[in-house]
Amino acid sequence: MDTTGLRGEEIRPTPGEARRARDEAGRLLGTARMLLAEHERARRDVMDVLEGVRAEQARAELASVPVARLKDVTGGRLRIGALEKAGFTDVRQVLEASAYELQLLPGIGAPTAAQLHSAARQLEQAARESTGIRIDVGRRDARTTALLVALYRLVDAGPDLPRAVEAARELDRWVVPLLLEARPAFGRLRLLLTGGRRRRRAYAALAELTGELERVRLLETSLLLAQATTDLLRPPPSEFEAWTDFELRSPEYHTLLAELAGNGDDRPAAHGLLPGDLVAEVLAQRLDDAHRRVSLRGYQEFGARFALARRRVILGDEMGLGKSIEAIAALAHLRSEGDTHFLVVCPTSVLINWLREIESRSALKPFCLHGSGRAAARDAWEREGGVAVTTLDSLYRLEASPGVRVGMLVVDEAHFVKNPRTKRSQAVAEWCRRVERVLFLTGTPMENRVEEFRTLVSYLRPELAENLEIGYAAAGASAFRKAVAPVYLRRNQQDVLAELPELVETAEWVEFSGPDLDAYQAAVRARNFMAMRSAAYAVPKTSAKLKRLLEIVQEAEQNGLKVIVFSYFRDVLACVEEALGGRAHGPVSGSLPAERRQEVVDGFSAVQGHAVLLGQIQAGGVGLNLQAASVVLLCEPQLKPGVEAQAVARAHRMGQVRGVQVHRLLAADSVDQRLLRILGGKARLFDAYARRSDLAESAPNAALDVSEQSLAAQIIEEEQLRLAEGRPR
């Protein structure tokens, strides 16, 4: 409230006006404090149950810790021979034994028993702090159920709850001091008894209070607080409702759980092993959530801040960690900073998914600049602002008006533009030159060669790319990390998603049937490498691989589990589809339009219980979220280790609530066996290079680049020689 008139004289609001402002502020403060109290009560309920769950899981973990570890805790001073002779094998047994029971053992007195318990409790505390909370839908025990029921209140309040709580805390900070300072202005008698200086301070405080109330009204803060409080006051769900909601919204539950359990973004794993000075720079970056509609994990918050602080970067998080959410968080922050127009470029296969994510995860409006309506969508985007989403292959046709300033360019699956000679790469490079902030997203930006990674960096920071020499491939971990740290951040699933269910991989070896072998030998003689790879399915009626595949699908059906079947070959998927009697969804293939592809995946995910989805591995392994499945079948080995890793990660990712079983169907004495042997070394290099953001010390650059042609030629020669000699492998 301005307290000066046109001529500079002081305007004194009437006590009635002042009291109305006081009453409004009081009501607002009451609503804010009620929300804070309910929020604290809900958090406390979760923490009470969480402590019990952590203690239980820690004790279970101690059952696998040998008693010898007790010596480590005490620097080797404890003698545990008597324990081992008495049959104590793990720390949990020592922790659960009473002091009296321990003292019954020869050589163990009261001091030693106390030392043993103290050492065991130290290990228990360490286990509590390090053990991630895993919620398994297959084991619905009472403690975990109670935890989900407690978490439900906070999750069901929605993504606006953190914003409402922060607004309530802010109100609690400024309302009371302003009310106290403005108190003399609320009554005529009090004003008469107040000195001039105190009166002026009262009017100034009243003006500030009125201004803040006006701001709160414009932001509809009162409605936000009331809605959040109502959500928290809803009755608790039934156990069935809590588990059902968890299966539908498990990422939200795990995000909240990680926050409450203290697994924030201060852990080195969340920082992708960046050097300390860069970590400090990133953590100092503010991240506004006003236009965001999703809560972030600690590592996701760090990733969004990294993109903002460093401006032009590659976010190389492993598949399944939510790179798109990190990008949307960065866009939402920039919207709060005043930017209005953004551009996302992605493969056609994930275009629909991006449109959905932007709409559901933020207050930003998405526009699809693809297909017949792209011109009208572009005009609307330029006029209204928001996020334009287009494909890598159509970017070259996009020309924004000179007056449109793009606040950030996001390029998804950026490894698709590693060849600078392609039209799509040239279009991306041109847009990178136009836009100040650029974010590349890719799970495998360094899959093949340092040269290709350098190409990606050259779009963002040419001066850094010039210094990124091929020699870094042999320079070791520290040199490579130092070179790429300013532009590259990568985190792995096992480092930041402690709650991921178990991933069990099984090699399903089969022997060729007679017709299978005939088809395989004919393919070898014809030097037809692709026919060799698919020969195990050439005669479906006698196919040993197909028989095993059907057995696994049948077992999954009996257990109500969803299955994804991946193959490189369309005819193999057609064979599987026919064998399943047309019961499968798909196949998801490169020729399937993006809209139809998403519809197929949605239909598969929506089925209650068992279902089968067929997918070409090069199409289904990119961009799509398939966490509804818990069984993955790979019909044949792939030529690149990253292709299989991508496909598996589509199911074993954030949001998965069941353990994932991966079955690789392999034919003995065949191309499969050759491929596994040859690619084994390449997979290890890929793991060291792409997964660790690091290079093996002795790995030459060329070792990572096994071309399909040379690989095929090598295997054909070896198989022709083996078959000519009539020997098994």
Please count the helical segments.
Answer: 33
How does the helix and strand content classify structurally? alpha/beta
Assembly state here? Answer: single chain
Percent of residues in beta strands? 5-15%
Task: Compute the average pLDDT.
Answer: 83
Unreliable runs: 1-9, 682-706
Query: What can be said about the biggest beta sheet?
Result: 7 strands, parallel
- In what order do the strands lie side by side in the largest sheet? 3-4-2-5-6-1-7
Q: Share of helix among residues?
A: 40-55%
Number of distinct beta strands = 13
CA-based gyration radius = 31 Å
- The separation of the N and C termini measures 88 Å
Shape: globular
Number of domains: 3
GO molecular function, one term: helicase activity
Keywords: ATP-binding, Helicase, Hydrolase, Nucleotide-binding
Protein name: DEAD/DEAH box helicase
InterPro entries: Helicase_ATP-bd, Helicase_C-like, P-loop_NTPase, SNF2-like_sf, SNF2/RAD54-like_C, SNF2_N
